[in-house]
Amino acid sequence: MNAIEFKNLTKRYTGFELEDITFEVPEGCIVGLVGQNGAGKSTTIRLLLGLTRPDGGEISLLGERDRARWADLREEIGVVLDTVGLPSSLKLGQIEKVMKGIYRNWDEAMFRHCVELLRIPSDKKFHEMSNGTKMKVGLAVAFSHHPRLLVLDEATNGLDPVAREEINDMLLEFTREENHSVLISSHIVSDLEKICDYVAFLHEGRLLLCEEKDVLAQEYVVVQGEPAQIAALPAEKVLHREDGLYGSHAVVRREAAPAGMHMQPVGIEELFVMMSKEMKKQ
Amino acid sequence: MKGLITKDIYVTMSAFRSFFVFLLVFFVVGVAVPGTAFYVPYLAAIPGSLASSMIALEERENWNSFAGTLPVSRRELVSAKYLFAMIMVSAGAFLATLVNVVQALRTGAAINVIPVFVQCFALGLVLPSVNLPINYVFGTVKTRYVSMFLIIIMIVLAVNNSDSQAGNVIAVFDTVPFWAICLGLAVLFAASWLFSCWFVERKDID
C-alpha cells in the first residue's frame, strides 16, 4: 500500500503552475523531494496537508481520498514545515502541554527522549532558540505522537552536520517499521542521498522524474571525453552535457555509454544539477 | 480544542502581559476613584480585542500553517478562537461587575450583579463578533482600523452616559429591553462564528 498517492495534481498561482504531478510514497519508504527554490516542493506538501486546495487531480493520504476526513488522519502524521510555526513566546514545557491537549496519542516519554537526544534546552522560550534548535523542537513534536507518516519540508536546513546526521538516523530508525513512511523535501541533496529510497525531482512545477535511488544510480553514469566523442552520443540518451577547457562530460543512460570511454557513477546531487541545467537550456 | 485554548492562554500570559497591566490600572481606578462608571466598558472591551491580537500574532509566527497540519478541523480552529474570546470577555466582565458593585456600594445604588455581568459580557462580545470574521476575511491589518473605530464608538457612548447611575453602563440598555439586547448580541456572536467557520473552511491557509 502507498502512504501517499499524487495523481495528476495541478495547482495554479499567478506566475506559477504545479503541473500534472503524479507519484507515490510507498509504505516503509523515505521519498526525497528535490528541486530548486520555486520548483513546487512546498506547494506539493501544502496540497498534501490540505492547507491548499488543488485545481485538479487527486491525493490519497494514508488510503483516504476524501479531504473532509483528513483532520482525523492528521493524528497519524508528523509534520515539520520550513517555518516550524510554534508559538514563539512559549517554553518547551508549555509547548508539550499544548501538544498533549491536541494529540490523542501524545507520548511524554517519547518527547523527553527526543529532547534529550537532540539536546534541546528546556529553559528557553521558542523565539530565543536558534533556527536549528527550533527545527529540532518541531521534529521532537512530530515524532512524539507516534505518527505513521512524517512530512518534512526543508526541516533539516539550518541544522549543523552532526544534528542532521542524528535526524537522518532517527528517520532511518522510524522507517524500520513496515507501515512508516517519510516524505522529505530538502536542498541538501547529499543528505537525501544517504537516507532516501526514492527521489522525486521537481523543476518549475513539473515532475522530471521519480525513481528508486538505486535504479537512478544504475541507469545513469557520467562519461568524460573529447567534445567530439561526447557530441557523438545519441541525443535521446544524454541527460545533459557540459563542455570545458580540458574536455567534456555528460550524464547519459548507462547503455549509451560507449566502451572505452571514461565512466564514473553519478550521484543524486550531480544528477539533479545536470537535469536542472538541461531544463534551463530548453 | 483543549490544546488550542491552552495555547492561547499561555501565549496571552507570556506575550500580552501589558494587557494585564491595562486591566489592573482600569480596575484599580474604577474601584478607587468615585464617579468612574464610564471606565467599566473598557474592562469588558479590552479582553474582547485579545482574540484579534492573537490572530495577528499567529499570522506573524506562521502558526496558521502549523495549526492546519494538526488533527483538528478548520471549524475547531475557529471555534477555539471564539471560545477564547468568551473566556477573556468573561474575565473582563467579572472585573467590570466588581467595579460596578463597589461603585454601587459607594453611591448607595441598587446592586444588580447578574444584569451588570451579562451587560458587560454581551458588550465585550461585540468586538470579537465584528473583528474575528473581518480578520479571517481581510487579514489583521484592516481589522485594526475597525477595532479602533469600534472602541471610539464605545468610549463616546460611555462618556455620554457617564452621569448615569452605576449599573447602567450604556444608555442604550435603558431604552431597549434587557433580554432583547442580550439576545441580539448572542445572535450577532453566533452569526459571526458561523460565518467565520464557513469562510475558513473554504480558504487556503497561507
Fold and architecture overview:
The complex is a heterodimer of chains A (282) and B (206). Chain A has 282 residues and is of the alpha/beta class. Chain A folds into two domains: 2-204, 3-Layer(aba) Sandwich (Rossmann fold); 216-281, Alpha-Beta Plaits, CATH 3.30.70. Chain A is 32% helix and 30% strand. Chain A has helices at 41-48, 70-73, 92-100, 108-117, 131-143, 161-174, 189-195, 213-219, 227-231, 268-281; strands spanning 2-13, 16-26, 30-34, 56-61, 77-80, 149-153, 181-185, 198-203, 206-212, 220-225, 238-244, 247-253, 262-265. In chain A, the strands form three sheets. In chain A, strands 5-6-7-3-8-9 form a six-stranded mixed β-sheet, sandwiched between helices. Chain A has a four-stranded antiparallel β-sheet with strand order 11-12-10-13. Chain A is globular, with a radius of gyration of 21 Å. Chain B is mostly helical and 206 residues long. Chain B has one domain (2-202). Chain B contains nine helices and no strands. Chain B has helices spanning 2-15, 17-32, 40-60, 63-67, 74-107, 113-138, 140-160, 172-175, 178-202. In chain B, helix 1 (2-15) packs across helix 5 (74-107) and helix 2 (17-32) runs parallel beside helix 5. The longest helix of chain B has 34 residues, at 74-107. Chain B is globular and about 55 Å long. Chain B starts with a helix and ends with a helix. The mean pLDDT of chain B is 83. Classes of the chains: A alpha/beta (282), B mainly alpha (206). At the A-B interface, helix 2 and helix 3 of A face helix 1 and helix 4 of B.
Helicity range of chain A = 25-40%
Given helix and strand content, the structural type of chain A is alpha/beta
Proportion of residues in extended strands of chain B: under 5%
| Secondary structure: number of strands of chain B | 0
CATH superfamily of the largest domain in chain A: P-loop containing nucleotide triphosphate hydrolases
The CATH architecture of the largest domain in chain A would be: 3-Layer(aba) Sandwich
* Main sheet makeup of chain B: none
Q: Taking Cα atoms only, what radius of gyration of chain B do you get, to the nearest Å?
A: 17 Å
Radius of gyration of chain A: 21 Å
Helix content of chain B: over 70%
Q: State the low-pLDDT regions of chain A, or none.
A: none
Distance between the termini of chain B: 21 Å
